[in-house]
Design brief:
mainly alpha; Transmembrane protein 199; transmembrane; membrane
Amino acid sequence: MSSISHLSLEISPEIQQFLETLPKAHASSSDAINALNNREHKDLISYKLLLSVHEFSKANSLINQPPPIWKLLHSAKIVYPKEVEPVRNPEVEKRVKALKQKFANLEYQRMTSNLVPLGNSPDCSVGLFGNEIKCMNRQFMMVLNFILIVGGAFTFGFYAASIFGFDDVKTSTRLITGFALALVVFFADLYFLLKNVEQAESII
């Protein structure tokens, strides 16, 4: 019972009727009756107090047929106490934040430990012919990828009208659309291509 004795109950009509009968039925005082009359919140009653008053009424025959305790509890709504967050020590809070930052940095370093800067390669070492060939092959693949991307952009622009159901578009309009889209992709991809090539050449 100790785990629920601190809970409070809202005064339901059944409980109110039961409590109003007690002072009229018994003039003498008791600890339970005094606590009942002196409680701070009149619309609430603790489970422990309600149980004490109910047992007192049965023991002293204050009511001929007192309602069973389960019926009183069933009619009431439980009011849980407000959760009080403990105040943390500022020094402990500071240490916790420092540890969180430390572990976040360690996790970031672990995730990025196997990564290399864009355009760089661990195989590109000065003086090794095989490694230089690998770097050249990688640059060739970048150029080939650049050509394929620009060509794909032109193809998409040329056939975009047909894809969206406009089959009556003139060929000249298709060409203009394809070249316009390819030109945008060309300059965007050219920037990254030159940047990667420059970084790769600085390592060789």
